[in-house]
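An example makes the point: we print one protein in full, the chain in one-letter code, the fold tokenised, without further comment:
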Amino acid sequence: MLTSTLFLGLLAVAAGRALPGVQRSRSQDTFENPILYEDFPDNDISLGPDGAYYFSASNFHYSPGAPILRSYDLVDWEFVGHSIPRLEFGDGYDLPPSGQRAYRGGTWASTLRYRKSNGLWYWIGCTNFWNTWIYTAPAPEGPWTRRVWLGNEVCYYDLGLLIDDDDTMYVVYTVDGGRQVNVTQLSADGLSPVRSQGVLWPEQVGVDSVEGNRLYKINGTYYILNDRPGSTAYVWKSSSPWGPYEGKPLADNVPGPVPGGGAPHQGSLIPTPSGDWYFMSFTWAFPSGRLPVLAPIEWQADGFPTLITVNGTWGKTYPRPRGLPAKPLRFPWTRTYTFSNKTSTSLPPTLEWNHNPDISSFSITNNALVLRTATVTNDLYSARNTLTHRVHGEYPKATLKLDVRGMKAGDRAGLAAFRDQSSYVAVEKTSDGGYEIVGLFGTVLDEWGSGATLDLGREVERVKVSVGKKGEVW
């Protein structure tokens, strides 16, 4: 599934540190939804060999691609890396001078699994509309390597990966606009298809289409989890991966825990060592994006799970999962970025770029991130090397320290609320050598159509500002 989200964007020439968001306190006995007040849609969650849970998400045109989170208790998560080091799916991901852009492409509803037999992690996803790619790595942190492109005609759309008890690898995905679900068996190395077959049709339960597929084997039975877009999560079961499958709703238009957030309906089934099970889904909260929400499920005598609700709704609060140790996060969400790697271009995994960066136009020097002009444009959506960070919390805040001495007349550097409708506040160096704070509101991207910029925005304020001896602007 594709949608936009709200990011903080760091524009043009800048050096400094940002402090995003606030971390909520958590009870020892309960947890509160959303699990993360950040945009992490299309989750695929599985257990790694270290006893931790790993969460793969979509991030569309942002680079690096396919973010990975880790947790030991399903409640406290940390960002550990990305499955795709650089988006290599076409020229548009580089924001070239010719004007191509990839706002309707990138990574979405992909899958991540660890394979014990060869010690590799597999990421598989259909990107750039109808192109499927496979990446592998020895660890979630990487290094990740592109292994194969399956060609223009093979799209494992909204897929899930199952590594069966005998090490056979299967993927489940939708075709025909979501009106059919296929299963494909992969080769022994997991890099090419061997057999494909339609296994279920949503019309079996009176549904026009489904998406967000996951495939599991639980107590000898094969289960497919998917959803009718926007409303209902379904579970299907069979004695064979090839079907036939019968299905029932898991969560049918259940009101979500975030006001105005809609019904959670897509995600992952997750077992715990204590024998408990959970459903991690997401709910929309404008303008932040799709926020992960967690709820327990119970298995019924007919072999289907049902969601445990609170007064008929997805609970705002539930008891914390039993038997899962809480461990301190190595990468907390609230932090100060000091960029202490003096000569590296490696950034913390919480930071991403709008499209692929021009690596020659940024560096980390003297505990600062230096952004050099990579694009001359008056269009925010075409400005290369816009550094992004998801907003964190319902009322996020950030502090940015800029050194503007390297700017030239006409250059702007600042912070943007970056999504399909954006605004920014920036420092501009003027033609007389001075500096002004500029507020520009109302830029608009045609997210659901051509991806073109519909409105460049308008200046709403311009104020002269003083700059310190070290070029500092706070």
Remarks:
- Residues 15 and 148 are 38 Å apart (CA to CA).
